[in-house]
Each structure stands twice: as structure tokens, then as C-alpha cells.
Design brief:
heterodimer, A: alpha/beta, Urease, subunit C, domain 1, TIM Barrel, 8-stranded mixed sheet, 25% helix
């Protein structure tokens, strides 16, 4: 890593840093608030000091505020990528660039992804250019059900990417959790119960909690990291797929009501949708899983999200095990597919407004950040995108992106490659001179 | 135009446009004009696991008032298509319904040839993805030209039904994985469930040889501390193997011409001899432009032809070379960056290839992606148009059907809606380049095998029978 420092120092000189948050009013918009309400034609959104102050049909533009005419195009909150590894991986297959998991670390719950987040990761730049403005970033578990503490980040072109560090703890249950616990689901539950018991011990006497080192079942650091979980101060995100496993977790929630559970993946959620709704447990779901990819997903169907929503479950979309480091941009396509299901006999999908909310306000609300991000309701961060057309359509492009009220650059390395090879043949000099 | 002439024309276009060198399978029974040579017919069967696929019954069907992408760049608005006896009869503006034909009003809908995925692992990496059924990579040696993917294909993979119902896929090539330089033979199947793999096998489709460049073989065998552990090692092992194959072919050709003692049989070399004879088509996993250029030279060195590069994420950098070599590129729309050799992937790849006149197509390599290949093309098409490359919807449909058919050597049979071809069709409930559209009906050889409005036309594999969610919408 030391060798990289001078490179970054010199590279920084060439990076055009965005201006600080400005006030802007976007008018003449097909305005999508992102809370599940219908688009408003002729709408206006006003951003001041990085926050939304007003959005709607009858919104006056304050004096002295720069006005952008959206020309009737869709204007929406930026997409909130529901479950990703954005910003912590450059190339998945190049270990040195992949900070998603640490297979030989003695620490698990204590791992905090925030320091790993690099806003200059190619995937951050590319997804920003496609209208993704925030992401829920989770570590990957290794050798424990606990993966560590995830962060909520922005995708802005500045050095300060972390919106909320240690925003949640992430845990694996089901087949993956069993595998990390010695080989069975009961062992995973035992590990979970033990960890929480140890964490409560720590809570009673932090100084008396013997740090038992590498042989301990829960290190002091891990016990400390679980404090906000047992106190219900941060959500506990748990990856689970099978219907019976979901019910086990809902039982644990009943037993430990302080836990703020959020379930992730949840391919068989439709089979227990009423229980999920009754327990008020939000879900960040895989949008389109429809294969029995494992024995815990036998009942997977693309109608899962629609059925859960119909039952009253709060459902956002995430990229669980699905190119999570780089393809959050596809959440728009996934949401569009859920709309397509509304035209299919026997299927359940989402109407357009709900589908958009599933990639904006719903994931934000699922982790308790609906007051900060995910919609254009007053007070939220000024994350706004102007689109060429319906953002869920396959040919849509982000025309302009603001994050925290700052207009963002949308150039990418991919765009430069495209331009270099518009004609594949070399010209008067090699391609290396063409930039 | 008679069906025969259409077929001849399609054949000529195949030669002009794409990778297939037009060679028909040479079989032991393909006798020369002057009577069999002494060794001919005394060697080995080239088709020991023959297709037992048979088309299911259909009814003469006329679709009217429908937008048609014919698969070869043509579009007819408010047109009609007639198929009967498993074959396309005619497409045109207005056609008369023969007596007894089912007439479907296609207003607001789009009719296309069935989608062909040239790169799939359905059946050899099936769902559920348990080790017991993971049969795609014989990763025990860098050259396993002796293995045949069809001997791994599990015809009960639930993925076939999703590819049909959600993806409109009617034909697919199932390949061995990419751990090896020469991973074995691929097989082309029709997307019709059968009790046996032979029951799915596309009649008369040439075999493929799966080859791989780049990171995978050198990583897998480098980790075992054996050759290849570098890209130069990859090519060295390839060349040594091709040199043996040339010798093997020479011996067998001599025997079949002159008679005498038959040479020793080598199952791996049978496949490579088939490649050198033009009977088997090379399907080459290769990401990087520089490696593709080396492979094309290697093919010339030993006298074979690469039908298509798969996962060709840098094909756009050498679109002119691919065109000059008559080699196709099969690509994703937007997969990128997951490994080093995918770092330079761009969404405009297909459009840049098309712009240069090269043969391009989409592929999935994925049990989920195969359900949305039309959407993948839509994204790539939009990226190309934003770059200023004008490509019509109907031309882009070539990336989904006729181009993969050409690269598989089956363009005379399927891949476009030309009279006499297999009646492999999808009726979409809207523009298939919209995210809001889905297949409404899928016919294969004229048989209605999926109908969104009829739950009894929703296949359920043996594996899913009786399981939670069996027969559900998926």
C-alpha cells in the first residue's frame, strides 16, 4: 500500500473536485418523490445547502437560486443500492483490491467496512454515472456468522464517501451461516446466542471482559461491536432464504425484541409473508431469484417481492450475491422487471411507483435512514437525477446527477475506452496517444 | 421463393457474414463419389450418441397484425406469420389462414425467432448448484478434449424452463467450463425437456470444441504447479496439442484413403481431428484482444478456424481483425471488472462490433442472464445509440438469433423466420427491448411449449415436482 500513496497524491492533482453544495431548483420535471407516490408532471424540486427543502407541483423557486429546466424529463431521487459491496472492491478476482472479506482475521463483528471505502473505485464512478447515489455496503462473512459492521455511503466525486459508518451489523444464517459455524443451522443459532450473551456480559462490565485472544469465542472487540446491536441502536441485517429459516429468525426477534432485524435475500419470503408483515421486519430482497439455486431457495419466484409487498412487508431491492461489488446499476432493470410482472397472468409484481420506491426509499427505510436518503421529501439529502426517459427502462441514461446538492461528473473510464476505439484501427500514432 | 432456394441463400449469407466455414459434418458414411476408400466406414462413428429429439405436435398457426423482427434485420409492422408442420411457411404483410389454422391476433405484440444462447451451462452446472451435480469442468488436466459436455448434461435442470418461459430461448449450446485450455465438446440442444440428453439434442447441429484463453487455465493449473501457469504456457500447451492432432488426422486420413492397419484410437484426438476437418466448430472463451489475435494466428498455424470468441469483452478493440478472420464475438452487455481480463469491458461492445461489420452476438453464461437476453441486447443497443451508432431494432435482433445460429452452424435450420426453417418463435406481449415485455407464447418446431395464459403449458422438471412452489409462476 505504501507504494500507492505517491500515485494517489499526484493523481489527485488531476481530479476535478466538485464544487461545494449549492442551491439549485430543478423545474419542469416529471417529478418522482420516491416514496411510492405517482410522478408529478410540471414538478419542481428545490435543494438548499445540500438538502431538499421542497418538492412537488406548486413549489416556488426562491430568489437567487439557480434554476435547471428538466424539459419534462423524469427527475427522481438518486437510486439507493440496497445491499452491495460498492466502494470496497476494485477487481473481485484481484485479492489485493478486494476488501469485502478477511478469511484469516480473528475479528468478525468488529470488522468495520468504512475505512475500506474508496470513492475512486471504478464501480463507484460507473454507478454514479448511471444514477446510483447511495449504497448500503456490507462486509462478507468469513469463519463466523458475523460479517461485521456495514456502512451507508454516497457515490459522490469527493473524498468523503461515508454517510454513516457502522450503520448496521451483517450476519449470515441459513446454509451460509451453517457453513460458517461448523456445519449446521443449530450450530449457527448456538453461535448467535453465545455471541449475544457474551456481548451482554461485556455491556455489564467492559473493563472486566477478559480478552481471551484468538481462542475466544468472541473477542473483546467483537463484543464491543455488538453493543449497538443488542441495544437496538443499529439494525442487524441477516441473510436468509428458506421459509422455515425466516420463521426461526422471527422467533428470535420475539425472544429478543430489542433487536432491529432486517432480512436480506429472502427468496422464500412469500411463503411466510404474513408473518414477516406482522413482525414488522423489513426485507432487502433479491429482485428476480426464480431458480432453486440451492435447497433453501426451492420456492423462489420472481413474484416473491410483489407477494411480500401485497402482504404489507416493507421490501427494498438489493444485490445479494449478484455482482454486488459493481452492478448496482442493474437494480433499475430489476425494478422494471417487477413492473413487467403486473402484466403476466398469475404473477405478482409492483406498480411503477412501488417499483421505484423499492430502489429508493424502501431500502433506506429498511435500515432506518428514510429520513436522510431515498426520497425527495423535505429534509432529505439533495440526491437528484435527471433521466433521459423512464429510469426503469433499458435505454434510460442519467443526464445529470446531484449528490448532497453537488452536481457530479459523469465521465467514466469505460467512456474513454469507447471513444478511443470508436474506430479500432490505429491512426497516425498508437492508441496509447489517443486520449 | 421455394424453401430450397431460401435455404441456399441462407447458406450463402452464412458464409459471407460469419464464422461458420460451411463445412458439413463429415461422417463415416459420407462416401466419396467414386465409392468408398479402403478405410472409409471402417473407422469410428462420428455420431455415437445420436439425437433422438422429435418435434412435438403443433397446429397450423397464423399470427396477424403483429410486429415481426425476422431475425435477419427485417421488420414488418402489422404483418403476418404462418407456420405449419413444424416449419415457417411464410411471413408477409397479410396472409390467408389455411383451413383449420389457429389464428392469433398479435396487435400490440412482437413476433421474433426464438432466442439462441451460444453459451450456457444449463444441465452441466444445473440448479440446485450442489457439488453432486456440478459437472462442467473436468479440471484434472489442461487438455480434456476427450470429454463431451453432453455426458454431463442433466436434462432435469429447472433452468431450462426459466430460459423458455421468461427468456424465450429455444436453442442453446451447452459447453464445458473454462478451467481447461481444451475443455471438451459442447453440444447444441433444443430447449425442450426430455428424459434423456439425446432427446434434447439439436438434430444435425455440428459439435463444438470449447477452448479457453487467459486467466482461468493458467490459474487452475498454476495452482497445481504445472503447465500452464502463464499465458505463454497456455499457448505452448495448445500448440503442442494441435501438433499432435495434425499428426493424428494425417494418420487417419491416410488410413481412410489407402486402407491398411487402422491407427490407434484416441478419443481426445478424434475431437481435434474433427476441428481440423471443419466438422467441429471451435468456441473459444477469450477476453482480451491481444490474446484473441494470437489465437487466430494459432488457428492459421494448424489449419483450423475459430467460429466464435466467447466472453470477448475486448472484441471492440479488434473488431476489424475479427471481421477479416470471419470470427464472431459472443459477449455480455455489461458484465465487467470481476476479474482482471474483464476490466476493459464496455457496454458499447456489440454496437462497435456491428459498426465495424463484424459478427456479433449476445450470450449469457448464466442461468439468470439467459432469462433476459433480450433485455441485455436492449441495454447494449441503447449504449451504442448514445455513442452515435445507428442500429435498428430489427438489426439488433440478429445478435439474439441469426448470428448465434451462424456461429453454431445451424443458420440453415433456425435463427430467422425464413420459409422452410424450424418454426422456433416467440410472441412477446410488447416490444422485447422494453423492460416491461415478456414472452407470451413460445413455439419450438411449431409446438406451443409455453403459454403465459395457460398454466398447463408451463414445464415443471422432475426435480421441482412436488417441491415448494412447483408449477408456480416463476
Amino acid at each position: 500500500m505504501k507504494r500507492l500513496l505517491p500515485f494517489f497524491a499526484s493523481a489527485a492533482a488531476f481530479v476535478t473536485l466538485p464544487a461545494t453544495a449549492q442551491s439549485v431548483a430543478i423545474v419542469n420535471a416529471r417529478l418522482v418523490i420516491g416514496d411510492g407516490s405517482a410522478p408529478i408532471d410540471g414538478g419542481t424540486v428545490v435543494i438548499r445547502d445540500g438538502r431538499v427543502v421542497a418538492a412537488g407541483a406548486q413549489v416556488a423557486v426562491p430568489q437567487g437560486v439557480q434554476t435547471v429546466d428538466a424539459g419534462g424529463h423524469y427527475v427522481t431521487p438518486g437510486i439507493v443500492a440496497g445491499f452491495t459491496r460498492l466502494g470496497i472492491v476494485e477487481v473481485d478476482g484481484v485479492d489485493a483490491t478486494n476488501d469485502s472479506g478477511a478469511s484469516t482475521s480473528p475479528f468478525h463483528a468488529a470488522i468495520d467496512v468504512a475505512p475500506a471505502v474508496n470513492p475512486r473505485t471504478s464501480a463507484v464512478i460507473l454507478n454514479r454515472a448511471e444514477g446510483i447515489t447511495r449504497a448500503i455496503v456490507a462486509p462478507d462473512n468469513r469463519g463466523s456468522i458475523f460479517a461485521g459492521q456495514g456502512a451507508v455511503i454516497d457515490l459522490g466525486a469527493d473524498a468523503d464517501a461515508v454517510t454513516r459508518p457502522r450503520a448496521f451489523q451483517f450476519m449470515e444464517y441459513g446454509e451460509s451461516g451453517a457453513g460458517a459455524s461448523g456445519g449446521s443451522r443449530p450450530a449457527a443459532i448456538a453461535a448467535f446466542r453465545n455471541a449475544l450473551a457474551q456481548a451482554r456480559l461485556y455491556a455489564r462490565s467492559p473493563t472486566g471482559y477478559a480478552d481471551q485472544g484468538k481462542d475466544a469465542l468472541l473477542t473483546r472487540a467483537d463484543a464491543e461491536a455488538l453493543q449497538p446491536v443488542i441495544a437496538g441502536k443499529v439494525p442487524l441485517l441477516i441473510h436468509v432464504e428458506r421459509a422455515s429459516d425466516i420463521l426461526v429468525l422471527l422467533d428470535l426477534k420475539r425472544e429478543m425484541p430489542a433487536l432491529k432485524l432486517v432480512l436480506v435475500g429472502v427468496s422464500e419470503g412469500w411463503m411466510v409473508a404474513s408473518q414477516l408483515a406482522a413482525a414488522h421486519v423489513p426485507v432487502i430482497a433479491s429482485a428476480l431469484n426464480d431458480l432453486p439455486a440451492s435447497f433453501e431457495q426451492l420456492a423462489a419466484t420472481q413474484s416473491n417481492v410483489g407477494r411480500m409487498k401485497l402482504a404489507g412487508v416493507l421490501v427494498g431491492l438489493g444485490m445479494i450475491g449478484d455482482n454486488d461489488a459493481r452492478q448496482a446499476r442493474n437494480e433499475k432493470q430489476y425494478a422494471g422487471n417487477l413492473v413487467a410482472l403486473t402484466r403476466m397472468p398469475g404473477a405478482s409484481g409492483l406498480d411503477w411507483n412501488a417499483a421505484f420506491a423499492a430502489i429508493s426509499s424502501a431500502p433506506a427505510e429498511a435500515i432506518g435512514m428514510g429520513g436522510e436518503i431515498g426520497s425527495l421529501r423535505p429534509g432529505r439529502r439533495g440526491d437528484v437525477v435527471i433521466w433521459s426517459n423512464d429510469p426503469l427502462e433499458l435505454d434510460a441514461a442519467a443526464l445529470a446527477v446531484w449528490i448532497d446538492g453537488v452536481k457530479q461528473p459523469l465521465d467514466t473510464r469505460q467512456r474513454m475506452l469507447r471513444d478511443r476505439y470508436m474506430q479500432p484501427q490505429e491512426g497516425s500514432l498508437p492508441k496509447a496517444y489517443q486520449r | 421463393m421455394t424453401p430450397t432456394r431460401v435455404l441456399a441463400l441462407a447458406g450463402a449469407m452464412m458464409l459471407a457474414g460469419c464464422a461458420d466455414d460451411g463445412a458439413r459434418p463429415e461422417s463415416a458414411s459420407a462416401a466419396p463419389a467414386k465409392g468408398p476408400a479402403p478405410g472409409m466406414g471402417k473407422g469410428y462413428s462420428h455420431d455415437p450418441y445420436p439425437s433422438t429429439y422429435h418435434p412435438y405436435p403443433g397446429v397450423p398457426t397464423l399470427v396477424t397484425n403483429v410486429t415481426i423482427f425476422d431475425g435477419e434485420g427485417g421488420q414488418i409492422d402489422r404483418g403476418s406469420a404462418l407456420f405449419a408442420d413444424g416449419k415457417i411457411v411464410a411471413i408477409g404483410q397479410t396472409l390467408a389462414a389455411p383451413p383449420g389454422a389457429t389464428v392469433i391476433d398479435g396487435t400490440g405484440k412482437v413476433l421474433t425467432p426464438g432466442i439462441i444462447d451460444i453459451h450456457s451451462h444449463l444441465g452441466d452446472y444445473p440448479s440446485p448448484g450442489v457439488p453432486a451435480n456440478s459437472d462442467g469442468n473436468e479440471a484434472t488436466g489442461p487438455v480434456t478434449a476427450d470429454v463431451w459436455a453432453e455426458h454431463s448434461v442433466w436434462p432435469q435442470d429447472p433452468g431450462f424452463s426459466r430460459a423458455l418461459a421468461n427468456g424465450g430461448v429455444t436453442t442453446l449450446e451447452i459447453l464445458p467450463g473454462s478451467a481447461n485450455l481444451m475443455g471438451g465438446r459442447s453440444v447444441v440442444v433444443k430447449n425442450v425437456y426430455a428424459r434423456t440428453e439425446q432427446g434434447m439434442k439439436f438434430p444435425g447441429a455440428p459439435y463444438g470444441l470449447k477452448m479457453a484463453c487467459g486467466e482461468n487455465p493458467k490459474r487452475v493449473y498454476g495452482a497445481k504447479n504445472r503447465e500452464p501457469s502463464t499465458r505463454m504456457g497456455n499457448i505452448a500447451v495448445d500448440r503442442a496439442t494441435w501438433a499432435r492432432a495434425v499428426e493424428y488426422k494425417r494418420k487417419w486420413d491416410k488410413y481412410e484413403t489407402d486402407g491398411g492397419e487402422p491407427p490407434a484410437r484416441d478419443i481426445a484426438m478424434d475431437t481435434l481431428r474433427g476441428v481440423l476437418a471443419g466438422e467441429i466448430l471451435v468456441q473459444n472463451h477469450c477476453y482480451r484482444a491481444d490474446e484473441m489475435a494470437i489465437v487466430m494466428d494459432m488457428a492459421k498455424e494448424f489449419g483450423y478456424h475459430v467460429s466464435a470468441f466467447h466472453h470477448a469483452v475486448e472484441a471492440y478493440k479488434i473488431a476489424d481483425l475479427l471481421k477479416a478472420n470471419g470470427t464472431c464475438a459472443a459477449v455480455w452487455a455489461d458484465w465487467w471488472g470481476f476479474k482482471m481480463e474483464a476490466y476493459d469491458a464496455i457496454s458499447e461492445n456489440l454496437a462497435l462490433l456491428q459498426n465495424a461489420g463484424a459478427c456479433a452476438m449476445i450470450h449469457s453464461d448464466d442461468e439468470n442472464g439467459i432469462q433476459r437476453l433480450n433485455q441485455e441486447v436492449a441495454k447494449a443497443l441503447a449504449a451504442g445509440r448514445r455513442a452515435g451508432i445507428q442500429i435498428s431494432d430489427a438489426t439488433a435482433w440478429e445478435w439474439l438469433t441469426i448470428n448465434p445460429a451462424r456461429a453454431l452452424g445451424i443458420a440453415d435450420k433456425t435463427g430467422s423466420l425464413k420459409p422452410g426453417k424450424m418454426a422456433d418463435l416467440v410472441l412477446w406481449n410488447g416490444n422485447p427491448f422494453s423492460v416491461y415485455s415478456r414472452p407470451e407464447k413460445v413455439w419450438i418446431d411449431g409446438a406451443l411449449l409455453y403459454d403465459a395464459n395457460d398454466p398447463t403449458r408451463r414445464p415443471v422438471s422432475d426435480f421441482e415436482l412436488g417441491q415448494p412452489g412447483a408449477g408456480d409462476v416463476k
